[in-house]
């Protein structure tokens, strides 16, 4: 008799937890969307669809998962330029709060891909331009990491 009751209770609890997580993720996306849209408007550019990357992990040593976002703003003032940015949102009282951002890549600079957060640092792969690389195609592979230091993101190149 107890098995069906326990199963029903477990299903109800699981559904509630899933609902809470879904609402939190939806709120996180809204905070990030609003932040990037405001920046794109200030730069007279836009964020291209489908290339934003969001990674969760503790960035401020408090044991709570924060969020790092790698995103691109392109077409500033009608140009064919693009800039990649890394932004950090810390989780305070269950909500994301913007903390810092920095340009990390872009046209004729380097391409960046965020891979993870480990030991309070954002780990990224880089592809930089060599002296003979055309503007479309950087070739020099590397790695870097960024850490949150106060209100700023600081780069720590990897060897």
Describe what you observe in this structure:
The chain is globular. It has one domain. It is an alpha+beta fold and 159 residues long. The relative contact order is 0.13. 26% of the residues lie in helices and 44% in strands. It contains 1 helix and 8 strands.
Individual helix count: 1
Main sheet: strands, sense, barrel: 4 strands, antiparallel
Strand order of the largest sheet: 1-2-3-4
Tally of discrete structural domains: 1
What proportion of the residues is helical, as a percent range? 25-40%
Shape: globular
Low-confidence stretches: 13-24
User: How many E-type strands?
Assistant: 8
Order of helices and strands: HEEEEEEEE
What value does the average pLDDT take?
Answer: 87
- Kindly report how far apart the N and C termini lie: 62 Å
Secondary-structure-derived class: alpha+beta
Rg from Cα: 19 Å
The portion of residues forming beta strands comes to 35-45%
Key features of this structure:
4-stranded antiparallel beta sheet, alpha+beta, single chain, 1 helix, 159 residues
Short description:
This protein has one helix and eight strands.
List the helices and strands and how they pair.
Elements: H1 2-42, E1 53-57, E2 66-74, E3 82-92, E4 95-106, E5 110-118, E6 121-128, E7 140-149, E8 152-157
Antiparallel strand pairs: 1-2, 2-3, 3-4, 5-6, 6-7, 7-8
């Amino acid at each position: 008799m107890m098995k069906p009751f326990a199963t029903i209770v477990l299903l109800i609890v699981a559904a509630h937890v899933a609902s809470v997580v879904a609402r939190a993720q939806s709120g996180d996306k809204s905070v990030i969307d609003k932040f990037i849209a405001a920046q794109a408007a200030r730069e007279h550019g836009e964020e291209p669809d489908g290339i934003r990357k969001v990674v969760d992990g503790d960035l401020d040593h408090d044991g709570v998962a924060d969020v790092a976002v790698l995103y691109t703003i392109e077409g500033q003032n009608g140009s064919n330029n693009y800039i990649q940015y890394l932004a950090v949102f810390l989780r305070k009282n269950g909500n994301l709060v913007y903390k810092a951002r920095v340009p990390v890549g872009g046209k004729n600079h380097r391409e960046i891909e965020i891979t993870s957060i480990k030991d309070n640092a954002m780990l990224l792969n880089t592809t930089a331009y060599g002296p003979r690389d055309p503007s479309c195609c950087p070739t020099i592979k590397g790695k870097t990491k960024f850490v949150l230091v106060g209100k700023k993101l600081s780069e720590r190149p990897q060897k």
